[in-house]
Design brief:
The chain has 8 helices and 10 strands. By secondary structure, the protein is an alpha/beta fold. The strands form 3 sheets. A 5-stranded parallel β-sheet has the order 2-1-3-4-5, with helices on both faces. Strand 7 and strand 8 form a beta hairpin.
């Protein structure tokens, strides 16, 4: 049984999550406070952490920063905050997903399953060549179904990054960190512009080819299949 740790100070929310997770055969532990949860994390070694942002003793974002110094356990944030900047911050400091209240416990369970599959290496074992893409790093080019894509440097690096971890959602800031190295590429809108031209070039090769998905307020992912 995979182990899920919930750090949430509202018993009603925690109870609903515990019930939904146990129904799906997960082993679940719950703590109300950040410090208690942090100790449980080190003692119990869960497979995934569901973390409330608005904890009474420590902000969930701050706790996430502490956790990332010792562990790469997947983290799903729970929060009443709906602003885009909060979602981006949560992902940038090491969160894997972000769920706003109120939410469906079944939706959270579905997200848990997806993240656990991804963290277990399922996404990393995707053979992009089986889906038509060939990445030739030594030649800095990408082909689709035997056709070399005419990409700019940024388009190549963007697509290469997205293909490296299919299904993973990369925030704009994460893509900028991996693609742009010079100060002139300092605006996140640049990502949107290059994604748009990249999509157009992919459709030029195959009008039905649209692997790049937009996740509003979060970023982009590459979906194969």
């Amino acid at each position: 049984m995979q182990k899920i740790l919930i750090i949430e100070d509202e018993p009603g929310i925690a109870d609903n999550l515990i019930y939904a997770l146990k129904t799906e055969q997960f082993d679940v532990q719950w703590d109300r406070l950040a410090e208690e949860g942090f100790k449980k994390l080190t003692d119990w070694s869960p497979d995934l952490l569901i973390l409330d942002v608005g904890l009474p003793d420590t902000n969930g974002f701050e706790l996430c920063k502490r956790i990332r110094k010792i562990s790469q356990v997947p983290i799903i944030f729970l929060t009443a905050r709906t602003e885009e900047v909060d979602r981006i911050v949560g992902l940038e400091i090491g969160g894997d997903d972000y769920v706003t209240k109120p939410f469906s416990p079944r939706e959270v369970v579905a997200r848990v399953k997806v993240i656990l599959r991804r963290s277990s290496g399922a996404s990393n074992t995707v053979n992009v060549e089986e889906h038509g893409f060939v990445v030739e790093e030594e030649k800095a080019r990408i082909s689709y179904e035997g056709k070399i894509l005419e990409l700019t440097r940024y388009e190549y690096l963007l697509l290469k990054t997205l293909l490296s971890q299919p299904e993973r959602v990369f925030s704009r800031a994460q893509l900028m960190d991996r693609v742009w190295t010079e100060p002139t590429g300092s605006f996140e809108r640049s990502v949107d512009t290059h994604i748009k031209t990249l999509r157009s070039k992919l459709r030029d090769v195959d009008e039905n080819l649209n692997p790049i998905k937009t996740h509003r307020g979060l970023g982009y992912s590459c979906t194969l299949g």
